[in-house]
């Protein structure tokens, strides 16, 4: 494969499923060597790798719990040792344990913030260290429209993603002088395994009927937006928050 990301080394956290799977495939199709990060499900990550390789792309799987800094450092060190550089980081890994406001306990709160916000920060810090040595790079953070408007049973999740939006701004300001661009995508209206319990026929029909574009999003829709932000086409874009949501923020 060849394209806008030819020979770039790209890491997709949480790349073994859902949106991360779609992003991994799109970046590989654009020529990147994709590191598919996973926490526990090695088989799913290897399936993504095999799918990419079956289309002529290049990829490998890398285990790390992004809620654990030591795991992040181990994974990033290994990637640099094998490939010599890191060009693109997509902070996609996240959890959303659906709980009502009054039912969120301390453990659930801290784990959600630690994985979603902490993982994004520490992965970015470590990857940006490598990018700075090599003259620049691109970081894309996957956020959500929920951070702007709230949603049922997602106070902790929305809070973590709102933090990611602020982190995107702050990081873009801090690392721009090193040629590193940092942007976020506000995702909405995409059905994946994280919200599978909500995917009743009535729920899907209700949401898609209200979306201005009239259909649910696909992981590949997010992948195409990530490709733009990670590519030279976005060389003068940083600190931006791109809504990829079928128009759900207008609802």
From TrEMBL:
Q: Which GO terms describe its molecular function?
A: glucose 1-dehydrogenase [NAD(P)+] activity
Q: What class of enzyme is it?
A: oxidoreductase
Alphabetical keyword list: Oxidoreductase
Highest taxon, organism lineage? Bacteria
Pfam families from the UniProt entry:
adh_short_C2
Q: Could you confirm whether the keyword Oxidoreductase appears in this record?
A: yes
Q: Which Gene3D superfamilies match?
A: NAD(P)-binding Rossmann-like Domain
Enzyme Commission (EC) number: 1.1.1.47
A biological process from GO: bile acid metabolic process
Q: Where is the Ketoreductase domain?
A: 8-194
Q: Which PANTHER family match?
A: 3-OXOACYL-[ACYL-CARRIER-PROTEIN] REDUCTASE, CHLOROPLASTIC (PTHR42760:SF40), SHORT-CHAIN DEHYDROGENASES/REDUCTASES FAMILY MEMBER (PTHR42760)
Query: What family is this?
Result: Belongs to the short-chain dehydrogenases/reductases (SDR) family.
Under what name is this protein listed? Glucose 1-dehydrogenase
State the organism named in the record: Paenibacillus sacheonensis
């Amino acid at each position: 494969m060849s394209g806008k990301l030819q020979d770039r080394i790209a890491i997709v956290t949480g790349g073994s499923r859902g949106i991360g799977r779609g992003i991994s495939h799109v970046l590989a199709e654009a020529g990147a060597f994709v590191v598919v990060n996973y926490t526990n499900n090695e088989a799913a990550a290897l399936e993504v790798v095999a799918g990419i390789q079956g289309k002529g792309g290049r990829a490998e799987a890398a285990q790390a719990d992004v809620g654990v800094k030591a795991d992040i450092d181990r994974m990033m060190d290994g990637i640099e040792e094998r490939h010599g550089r890191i060009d693109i980081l997509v902070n996609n890994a996240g959890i959303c344990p659906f709980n009502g406001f009054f039912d969120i306990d301390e453990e659930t709160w801290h784990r959600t913030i630690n994985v979603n916000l902490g993982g994004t920060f520490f992965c970015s810090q470590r990857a940006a260290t490598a990018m700075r040595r090599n003259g620049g790079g691109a970081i894309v953070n996957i956020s959500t429209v929920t951070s702007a408007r709230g949603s049922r049973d997602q106070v902790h999740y929305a809070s973590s993603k709102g933090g990611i939006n602020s982190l995107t701004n702050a990081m873009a300001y801090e690392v721009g002088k090193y040629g590193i661009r940092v942007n976020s995508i506000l995702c909405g209206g995409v059905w994946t395994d994280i919200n599978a319990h909500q995917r009743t026929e009535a729920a899907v029909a209700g949401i898609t009927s209200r979306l201005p574009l009239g259909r649910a999003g696909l992981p590949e829709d997010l992948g195409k937006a990530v490709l733009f932000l990670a590519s030279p086409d976005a060389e003068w874009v940083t600190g931006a928050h791109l809504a990829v949501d079928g128009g759900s923020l207008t609802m």
